[in-house]
Structures are given as structure tokens and as C-alpha cells.
Amino acid sequence: MAEAAGQSVEIVEVGPRDGYQGIGPFIPTATKIAFLERLAATGLWRIEIGSFVSATALPQLSDTAEVLGACAGIAGIRPQVLVPNEKYGRAALAAGSTFLAFVLSVSEAHNRSNVRRHLLESVEEYRRLIAALPDGIDVRLNLATSFDCPFDGRVAEADVLALLEELVPILPDAEICLCDTTGRASPDHVERLVAACHARFPQARRWALHAHDTYGLGLANVYAAWKQGIRVFDASFGGLGGCPFAPGATGNVATEDLAWMFRRMGVATGVDLDALVPVACDGAAIPGGLPGGRVRHALTASAR
């Protein structure tokens, strides 16, 4: 694809957070750290390593502080952590995090289910957290249910833009990630929303897409966002994932699928696909995991 030659994208590996959070059997902390070491060795430098949340709500991620501490010994990694409110944002900072991903939902129903807050409460908590940040902290703003809500159905584009009118001025430099929480987005919807966001908020310089592959449209939606200028994409090794607060949602688009598609398009990712596939195979085999994706099966077919 000649038009893509010389271009590049950034893949954010979210498997160690989104991929693990719905798994019941506790993954040993040492195993999580070993996977981070292997993922970083493939060229996946930016990795969401966990979230600071209630251990009762998500016991699988109760060791995030320990995992974060281990990242200091992993060459090349830039760990980010998910936080759902001001309290846990401050806890992440106290644990040494320098990259926060603050999540709230466009849908009121999902925001109450996911973070136990009225939407406007979450906006104010984000405002207070940003005001209290020390220097040197990177911030991403994750807008869950930007396209569809598991409770209310399709989310109006006007609702996304209205919420962003409140949020963007708080920190214009924040990276803003539009999240297809349920995997029900379609490429035309993605194109329209991304175009509308760019037109309405030219001061927001970094946009990202978080795609789930529940209905098999994950890669198509990534491509639609790429055509509209997005260059940061979340993905999960082995296609692991699924939101415990979005019934029926399966994993993110698989990292290996994303890396393969962009390689075929002539778009650089910095990811060594040959090194990634064995890690993805092992990730897909984690007990209790819900894997997805196609590329690892295709590339290992001859070995089988």
C-alpha cells in the first residue's frame, strides 16, 4: 500500500490490564512480570501493566503496585496504569506511576456500573486529579462506551462531543482514547466520530482508539480510525480481554493481528512479529483467559 509507506503507528499493549482483569484464577505476580519482560523484548515499549482499583472488585489486579515496581528493572518499558477516580489516581502516583490512564464512560449507566460514579462526579474527580499532578506525569483520558453501551445501546456522537467539551479544556495535552467497550462499533461510525472529534477539538493533539473484537470488526475499526488520522492503538496479546462491567464483550483486537496488518500496509510498528507470536500463544493459554485473534494461528499452522 504505497500511501502508507514511511508512516508509523504506536501500539499500546493493554493485555496485562484489560486481558487479565476478567480472568478468575489468580495469575502469579512473577508470571505477570515475566510476560512484561517478554512483551517489552518484542518492541512493545508502552504497556498498560494493571490498574489501581478496589481489590474486591478486581482481585486479579490487586498486585499492580508490585508489578509497577518491577518495571524499573525491565529495559525499554514505559508502564501506564488505569485509574477510575481521584482516590486511585493518587494511589498510583504514590506507588511511583508516571503515566495515568483515567477512565470514565460517556454512558451514565455504564459509568455507574464501572466506576460507581455519576458522570459529572467523574468529570470533577478528573479535574481535581489533574490539578494535583506533579510535573512529569503523562495522562491519557479513556472514554469508555464512546460508541455503544451494554445497557443503553448505541451512543450518540453528540454525547461524546458534549462530554469532551467538559474534559478537553482540563488538560488539552492529554491523550484522548475513544473506546469501543462492547465491540459493537462499525467502521463508518468510527470514521464519523473521529472526524467530528478532530474538527471540534483541534487543540487536542493526540488521539487513540481502543477496539474490541467481539463482533469481528476490531481490525476494520482500527483501519477506519487510521484513515482519519489516529496513530495510537490499543491491543492485547493473544486477543485477551473483556470488560467485567460490559456483559458479552470479548477481547481487544489481538496485538499480533494489528502488527501483521500494519506490516502488510507498509506502516511501521516497531514490533518484532516473529518474537511476539510465541508470547501471544502463551498468553492465549493462560488458564481462565478468553483469547481471540487469527494471526498467531495462521503463522503457526505449519508447525502444527
TrEMBL record:
Signal peptide: none annotated. One of its GO terms (molecular function) is metal ion binding. Keywords: Lyase, Metal-binding. This is Hydroxymethylglutaryl-CoA lyase. GO terms for biological process: ketone body biosynthetic process; L-leucine catabolic process. Gene3D superfamilies: Aldolase class I. It comes from the Bacteria. PROSITE patterns: PYR_CT. PANTHER family: HYDROXYMETHYLGLUTARYL-COA LYASE. Belongs to the HMG-CoA lyase family. InterPro entries: Aldolase_TIM (IPR013785), HMGL (IPR043594), PYR_CT (IPR000891). The lineage of its organism: Bacteria, Pseudomonadati, Pseudomonadota, Alphaproteobacteria, Hyphomicrobiales. Residues 9-277 form the Pyruvate carboxyltransferase domain.
